[in-house]
UniProtKB/TrEMBL annotation:
GO terms for biological process: carbohydrate metabolic process. The lineage of its organism: Archaea, Methanobacteriati, Methanobacteriota, Stenosarchaea group, Methanomicrobia. It comes from Methanoculleus bourgensis (strain ATCC 43281 / DSM 3045 / OCM 15 / MS2) (Methanogenium bourgense). GO terms for molecular function: glycogen phosphorylase activity; pyridoxal phosphate binding. Keywords: Carbohydrate metabolism, Glycosyltransferase, Pyridoxal phosphate, Transferase. This is glycogen phosphorylase. The modification N6-(pyridoxal phosphate)lysine is found at residue 491. InterPro entries: Agluc_phsphrylas, Glyco_trans_35, Glycogen/Maltodextrin_Phosph, Pyridoxal_P_attach_site, TRASH_dom, YHS_dom. It comes from the Archaea. Coiled coil: none annotated.
Length: 590
């Protein structure tokens, strides 16, 4: 059995390896003593995220934030960045979506068995929450890069017999329950997580707080001997993902004091609670030396929301190999050796003939067509212009925008057939998100016989792979400035799928009109009232569809394929997590 040195990435043969170590219930092999010692004693980057998307079968993510965290782990392992990740086990997942024919979402638990996927670590920790001692165990999933090293991922779990029934459920539901439940989760993740790493003997050089849910770890660090605010700051990196003030959750003072008094001395806690309570984001801002937003536009919004902090921008990406379909992987391997590890090489995509690009895309499209037939019993036309839209169903994503004027949509469809593939789950408590899914279904029914449209149930990472590679155009219509980044359009670009998007988040940086895709509505600087904005968005949506996108797709095939190639050469080469992690490594981690 071949093994790999987790530190330097060299292949090693366990039968003959001179160096090995047993830690955390596993045996690891090394090519040198130095690698072994680095593995055991070296400082790690501890990446904390409330959600992590490793794979569809481990349903501990709700959307882009978790999938990004998974891509951070995948790229870090590829690049031999010494990282360890911490999250919650979310035994009942986020939500498994069932849809009635009318588009009513039925919320089912998405229970999974950590024991079937990971190994339990023997060392446990305890945190005091209110007047209870809550025991925490960790499940370990070792993420091995096929080309590089290892990132261990710890899933914290309070479902232990010694805990009170209520506390056993703290790590059940991602973003579930009430505010008190979410604060308990933040305590387990932040304080329990930092403590768990110490209990495992893992030395941490930097703590990367991916969105503020884990920011209580800063207070845990402050309590350690020899620490003060300035020293904690040098150890902490905070990436904010939220663009609007109302989205920063503030926990009421009484609740914070009641739940945290046993862990954080009141005097210390008092320093960080404002009159209206404790905002985890404010804590992360104040106690992190390196703070960043996830696109340039998002950096600018964050600077306005949090004046006085030095906020930078590290634009998000996606993991190149994971989000490239099999047929495009083969194609890139053939023409652009090394692309997955050096995605910058994708600028050379012009060397791939149009025929090959079209062929690879048609195969990815066929896979989606097959899936739709199997799941929804609908026969899509492999030749027809196919538009995809899939993401969390929530108000600002505006899944229904394209259905604002059905007559215009029908009219566009008469120029050349269009078909629509939708997917996306609503949070169980998000009534507006659920209403949107219903409205999409209503519109689809109204369009029957003229525009073929399907809604695929239970959006997952696997389905995201299939859709972002298998459609022709990837539609995105968020209400600015709510889309801090967005990442699914980057997945599309890796597969030569063309973006048609509102100018928000990453698209402001990726958009070259008519070259990498098309914009919907005014640019970010344009002062426009809400009504004006909407009018211009609808104008662009329908007229670009009818007069640019459809004619190009059907009648100027070479021009269309050139746009597909530009999408790869001018988007995918840059909007990937390899570039992103190299930036975090050199600017924030070193
Ligand atoms: C990539 C991904 C997302 C992010 O989609 P956006 O359009 O960027 O919001 C959400 N859910 C899943 C399952 C994904 O794979």
């Amino acid at each position: 059995m071949a093994a790999r040195d987790p530190v330097c990435g060299m292949p090693v043969d366990p039968a003959t390896a001179a160096y090995s170590v047993e830690v955390r219930g596993g045996t690891y092999y090394f090519s040198s003593e130095l690698c072994r010692d680095t593995f055991v004693e070296g400082e790690k980057i501890a990446y904390f995220s409330m959600e992590i998307g490793l794979e569809s079968e481990i349903p501990t993510y709700s959307g882009g934030l978790g999938v990004l965290a998974g891509d951070v782990i995948r790229s870090s392992a590829d690049l031999l960045i010494p990282m360890v990740a911490v999250t919650l086990v979310n035994r009942k997942g986020y939500v498994r979506q069932r849809l009635t024919p009318d588009g009513d979402q039925i919320d089912l638990p998405d229970e999974w068995d950590p024991g079937a996927h990971m190994r339990e670590l023997s060392r446990r920790v305890t945190v005091r929450i209110g007047d209870a001692n809550v025991a925490i165990r960790a499940w370990l999933s070792d993420y091995w890069s096929p080309v590089g090293g290892l990132v261990p991922v710890l899933f914290l779990d309070t479902d232990l017999p010694e805990n009170a029934p209520g506390d056993r459920g703290i790590t059940d539901h991602l973003y579930g329950g009430d505010q008190e439940y979410r604060l308990k989760q933040a305590i387990v993740l932040g304080i329990g997580g930092a403590r768990m790493l110490a209990a495992q003997g893992i030395r941490v050089g930097k703590y990367h707080i991916n969105e503020s849910h884990s920011s209580l770890l800063t207070l845990e660090l402050l309590k350690r001997p020899g620490m003060d605010e300035e020293k904690v700051q040098t150890h902490c990196i905070f990436t904010t993902h939220t663009p609007v003030a109302v989205a920063f959750e503030t926990f009421p003072r009484d609740m914070v004091v009641r739940l945290l008094a046993g862990e954080i001395p009141p005097a210390l806690l008092g320093e960080y609670i404002a009159k209206d309570g404790l905002a985890l984001a404010t804590l992360a801002f104040r106690l992190s030396r390196y703070v960043n937003g996830v696109t340039t536009a998002h950096m600018n919004f964050s600077r306005r929301l949090f004046p006085g902090f030095h906020i930078r921008a590290v634009t998000n990406g996606v993991h190149p190999h994971t989000w490239t379909s099999g047929t495009f992987r083969d194609l890139y391997d053939r023409y652009i050796a090394g692309w997955a590890q050096e995605p910058e090489l994708l600028v050379r995509v012009d060397e791939i003939p149009h025929e090959d690009i079209r062929h690879a895309h048609q195969q990815a499209k066929q896979a989606l067509v097959d899936y739709v037939r199997e799941k929804n019993g609908v026969a899509l036309d492999l030749r027809a212009l196919t538009i995809g839209f899939a993401r969390r169903a929530t108000a600002y994503k505006r899944a229904t925008l394209i259905f604002s004027d059905l007559e215009k949509l029908r009219e566009a469809g008469r120029r050349g057939a269009i078909q629509l593939v939708f997917s996306g789950k609503a949070h169980p408590a998000d009534a507006v998100g659920k209403q949107q899914i219903r409205e999409v279904h209503n519109a689809m029914r109204d369009l029957e016989g003229e525009v073929t449209a399907v809604y695929l149930e239970n959006y997952t990472m696997d389905l995201a792979s299939l859709m972002t590679a298998g459609v022709d155009v990837w539609l995105n219509t968020p209400l600015p400035p709510y889309e801090a980044s967005g990442t699914s359009g980057m997945k599309a670009a890796l597969n030569g799928v063309v973006n048609f998007s509102v100018l928000d988040g990453w698209w402001i940086e990726g958009w070259l009109e008519g070259t990498t895709g098309w914009a919907i509505g005014p640019g970010p600087g344009a002062p426009a009232s809400e009504a004006e904005r909407r009018a211009r968005e609808l104008q662009d949506l329908y007229s670009k569809l009818e007069y640019l996108i459809i004619p190009t797709y059907y009648h100027r095939r070479d021009e269309w394929t050139t746009i597909m190639r530009s999408s790869i050469a001018k988007i995918a080469y840059y909007f990937n997590t390899h570039r992103m992690m190299r930036r975090y490594a050199t600017e924030a981690y070193l």
